[in-house]
Every structure is written in structure tokens, then in C-alpha cells.
Amino acid sequence: MTNISQLGRDPDRSGRRARPGRRRASGARRRSTADNHASWIERKIPHFEVLDTEALELIEHNADTVLEEIGIEFREFPSALELWKSAGADVDGERVRFPRGLCRSLVEANAPREYTQHARNPKRSTIVGGERTVLAPAYGPPFVHDLDKGRRYATLEDFHNFVKLTYMAPGLHHSGGTVCEPVDLPVNKRHLDMVYSHIKYTDKPFMGSVTHPDRAEDTLAMAKLLFGEDFIEKKTVLTSLINANSPLTFDATMLGAATIYAENNQATVISPFLLAGAMSPVTVAGTLTQILAEALAGMAYIQLVRPGAPVVFGSFAAAVSMQSGAPTFGTPETSLVLYGAGQLARRLGVPFRSGGGLCAAKIPDAQAAYEAANTLQTAALAGVNFMLHTAGWLEGGLAMGYEKFIMDADQANMIALLLKGVDMSENGQALDALREVGPGSHFLGAAHTLANFETAFYRSPVADNNSFEQWQQDGSLDAARRANGIWKQMLREYEPPRLDPTIDEALVDFIQRRKSEFEDRDY
What we know:
By secondary structure, the chain is of the alpha/beta class. Helices cover 46% and strands 13% of the residues. A hairpin with a 4-residue loop joins strand 18 and strand 19 (399-401).
């Protein structure tokens, strides 16, 4: 099986098929590498922090003031209001105001610092939290884009393609959730096909449906067919995204899905979704205050539903242009928000989630590359434990890009090496090489170089480092064109992981039965 890191080792980087002999020679290595993908990145470098203790304590104080004086609305979900009333909160209609420190105490006393999300292949199970980083693809775009067909509505075939590409990308540890919206299927039934795709075409962990409580129940039912009911009762096999309806609101859809997952001990990512200037204040400190208040309220609610249920402190923060109102990404202010949110999550003692390869670019161009790289590196340095939107994001999240996916997956491979830090072993110190070469010579033929040349330095499958003449001879391809060839080759050589036929049959029967029980709807 080919994956993106192995393609980087092939001298033919144009994306064309390698010659048959070369493919045969590399086949065993490709399969071996595919079988040994890491399940997370073990962080070996310090976090980058921008706020001192005094600033953090002030933001925490301000967030408690927001929770106490302004409160959070829990809309059209009476059971949540009853739980808060029983916990000592002041409930006025749908507005909940919290005694100072209540939300924090519920989270600190009950929420786990980390949790294992089990995959159907135990080798792919991952751990979210601690000094680990788990990377997942983009989530939610209704459109897809590639260089051949341009921008168009996503289909189930596109969904399958991105699940397969994620499975084959060694830098991505998690299959994600709604990697794109298959709009060729009814809204109220497409979740069944999406969850099945994550089960069928990959054996990495995946996310559950959250667009209706019934769809969360369906996800759990399918997970029980895959893992067994006894396993689900004791273990976490789903991590699902619960967005606050910012500012300062949780709606019935998100609360319903969150409640179902929490009751079944499945993980939820509680994510304020903020575009500063529109859905939060225009300042970094003000936005951080709102993020913390919303995240605390959501995570505390989960602990009321089921103490000890896994939660992730989520954050999605960008800004809007004060000229046009359009979202912007990869800017210094949003980087500062991300760094600060990471610090707040660590002080609270829960895993932290943020993006990702975010950009506002419409095509995989220079803007897409630098905005995505800015956000990816910021997230990595900030200490993100669960990085959603790592690969594929275009157009402010409206489109999932095939070429952009490959370019971002390349960055994900680099993040893994960055976070591993500096090799200080005897080999890493390289004193033997320095003694052998001495003054005035070079290291190209040194024994140390020859012993390490196969693994020394990251080799990008997308970037071209050849001479101008060689680049011309190879077709004068830019990075996007090279990525175009790579994703096509990966899909040609995709091989599905084995799924027990009995389980597969049970899943298909369940999907067919559920689809027959209600009419198609567009909501």
C-alpha cells in the first residue's frame, strides 16, 4: 500500500506511476510502513506559552464573572436545566448562572486528564491527552475541490475517498468525522453511510454523528455491532464534536447528542466556535475569557450527566475582517488565542483540541499554504492534544480540497518530527563524524552520514528540491500539480483493512432497516 511518506522516497515525484520494477521493489516496504503508522505523536519539546500566571488567573477570574453574572443559555433542553438546578445553579428560564467556581470544580473533580479511544484495530487505538498529539482531517465542508473538476458539491464517493486517503496517511492518527458532507444523500440518513464508511474503509478511530440525538443513538448502535455491547459499556470508542452556539449558548441539537454520548461514557469535544469581532470580542483576552466560560459550562454539564465521562476542552477561534466581515485565518491574533487556550486547558487538567490547517484560500495556492502552515505550527507548539481540521481545509471550511489534503498531510508528517525534539543519543551527538571529518573536509562520505542517510532529514513528497533543469524535465509542475498526482496514485493503490464479514453484514442490515423506518428529509 502506498502512502504519502513513501511517495516522498520515490525519485519520480511528478505523481506519475513509477516504473513496474520500482513498484515491485518498494511494495514490501510500503506495506510494512502502512502497518506501522504511529497512533499519536509523543511530545518531547516544551509548550510555547504567551501568558504569565497573573494573566491566566485574571482570565479565569473574568470567565467565572461571565458565568456568574451573565450566564449561559441551555436552549430547549429541560433536563439540562434540571441538572443545573440540582447542582446549585441559578436557573432563570433557559439562562443558567453559576456560583463562582462551580463549573471548574465539577471538571477538576471528575473529568479525566486523558483517555484511550479504542479503534477496531487495537494497534490504531489512540490516547487523547497528556503529552500526546493526535491529528485528524478536516470536518464538515459541503463542497470539495480538485484541480481536475474544480469546486463542486461533495458526494458519498468523495467521502469514501477522503476516508481512504486518511487511512493511508501516516501523519494522521484519527479518521475524523464528517470529512465532507455527502449532499447526494438525504440529510436525515447520510450519517449512517458516513459512520459505515469510517468502519469499512479504515481501522483508525473515528467520530460520531451529532446533528440529531437520534443520529448519535444510531452511531452508538453501529459501534456496538462493531465492538460488542460489553466493550462499549466499559471503553471509549467515539470522540464527537459538540459546538457551542456562540456567544454563550448551547442549543438542543448539540445538548441532545452530547447527553447521549456522555451517558454511554463516550468522549465529547466541547468547542466554542468563535469568529472574533462577530461571535466574541475583538480582543485576545476577551475572546479567551469567552472560550473558557463556554468550555467550562459545557464540560461541567457533561460531568453532571455522567461523572468521569471523557471531555476535551475545545477551541475554534478565527477572526473576521473589520472591512468585509469575512473570516480570516492564520493571523497573529488567532495564534495568540490558540496559545492562551492551550495554557488554560492545561491548568484545568483536561485534553485540549484546536485546528488545524485552516485557511480562507479558495484553491491550493500560496495563501492556502502559508495560512495553513501558520495555524498547524501554532497548534503544535501550543500543545494541542486533538487537532481537528489538520488536512484538507479550504475556503474557511466550506470546501475539502484533494490537493490541499496532500499538502497538509505533508505538514502533519513534519509536525511529528518537530514535536519529537532533538536526538541527544550518542548517534545524535555525532562526535564520531566530527572526529572523522575534521577541519576543511565534508561529511558526504563520512561513516556516520552513510549510516544515517536513509533517515536523515525529512523528505517531502510534495516539495521539489531538484535543479531548475530537472524540474523542467519532470513537467514544470507546481506543488498542487504534484499533490494531484499523489492523491490519485494513493487511491489507485488503496487496499481496505479486513472487516469481519459477519459484522459487516450486521452493519449493512442495520443501515437498511433504519433507512426504511422513516422518509427522506433535507433536515
